[in-house]
Amino acid sequence: MGKLAGKVRKRKSWWRWIIAIVVLAGLAGGAWYYFGRSQAEPAPPTVAVTRGDIQQTVLASGSLEANSVTSVGAQVSGRIETLHVKLGDTVKKGDPIADIDSLDQENAVKSAQAALANMKAQRLGKLADQTQAQQTLTRTEQLLKQNLKSQADYDSAKAAVDAAAASLAALDAQISQAELAVDSANLNLSRTKITSPVDGTVVAVLVSEGQNISSAQNSPTIVKVADLDTMVIKAQISEADVTRVQPGQKAYFTILGEPNNQIEATLRSIEPAPDAISTADSGISSSDNAIYYNGRFEVKNSDHKLRIAMTAKITIVLQDAPDALLLPSSVLGTANRQGKYFVRVLDPKTEEVTPHEVTVGINNNINAQITGGLNEGDLVVATGVSGLARQSGTNTTGGRFRGPPSPFGL
User: Fold this and answer.
1) Which domain holds residue 292?
2) What is the CATH number of the domain that holds 347?
């Protein structure tokens, strides 16, 4: 029995040694795996805080229009005898545009002048009649005092004077009408010489020489003259953005021909109603489409490089911060319930990672303006901050986590 008990004790001792060796080996392997792998891990990915310009903007699209377009028409009928301009010509106010065959208008002037002359000649005759009637009345009045004429003779002479005066007054009125007819005929004659009412550029020529035009129904358009020194962009602004824009704000735009050239403009006005407005009682037609309001932008165009109907992509500047501290918006993660952001900053010398509370100004969802909590050149860990508060002193990237994790509250 003693020998058997000794053998059992030896076996137990042997197994204890085996278990101890296995445990030590496991501990050694775990330590190597943890510390060796941790030391071999690369530094966490980081993004440096830089300086640059940042803007918060609203985008819109539209087309270019002339500041004003004047339709130059004809107010008299006739044949286009001479056309003095062609498409693209620059004209000044008063420059000749076209001449209409004026024969009918010249004849109308002559006819009106002849009618006026006839009226004036008739007036001379009526004036002579009035003078004679007045003389007769004077003699009759003298003879009546001498009882050589009766009262009836006097009354008849006075009636003749009054009738001559009335005829003369009626003729004077007819002469005034004849003079107006002459003025009207001369005006129509002058209208056969069409001139530009404004300075500008001829952007449309709608007639040709030899063409007959009629002004019976409306005033036919000869040419269109546009002011191209200042252009207007009519751009559609969505209802989601229109409350954030207001007249006077800076803007810039690009055209298809020069997509890299930003041209400055100014928001001049915003139309109070969308294009969808109708004459219905409700005021706005029912539609499932998005609502857009037209904003009108003004831009100088002294070189006339910008042309009517060009497509423009507008950027309206809501906020602008030049030379600001910038950090990619994605690095910030999501603000907590207090609206605060927390990031992790890596010290490249000690490889320690510490949390920083930062304040943010402009955030255009691409970059964010850092107004406090970071300095230029700081290396911000590019990984998300979720789970940071659950760490208990050691981060997963090899650097030691310094400071209490409680500010994250995540």
Assistant:
1) 224-319
2) 2.40.420.20
Looking up tokens 């310009």 gives: 53
Quote the pLDDT of residue 6. Answer: 52
- By three-state DSSP, how is residue 341 classified? strand
- The residue whose two tokens read 């496991």 is 26
Q: Are residues 228 and 312 both part of a single domain?
A: yes
User: Residue 102 has what pLDDT?
Assistant: 92
Q: In sequence order, what are the residues at sequence separation of 6 or more whose Cβ sits closer than 8 angstroms to the Cβ of residue 266?
A: 248, 249, 250, 251, 297, 298, 299
401 with 391: CB under 8 angstroms? yes
DSSP element (H, E) containing 236: strand 221-238
SS3 63: strand
pLDDT at 404 (0 to 100): 38
Could you give the count of Cα atoms lying within 13 Å of 7 in the half-sphere of its Cβ?
A: 4
Same domain, 307 and 236: yes
Tell me the CA distances in angstroms from 175 to 108, 120, 182, 327, 402, one per residue in order: 17, 7, 10, 88, 108
Per-block mean pLDDT, blocks of 10 residues, the chain (410 long): 51 62 63 52 80 92 94 92 94 96 93 94 88 89 86 88 90 93 94 94 94 81 95 92 91 93 93 69 56 92 93 93 92 82 89 90 90 91 51 35 38
> 397 near 348, Cβ under 8 Å?
no
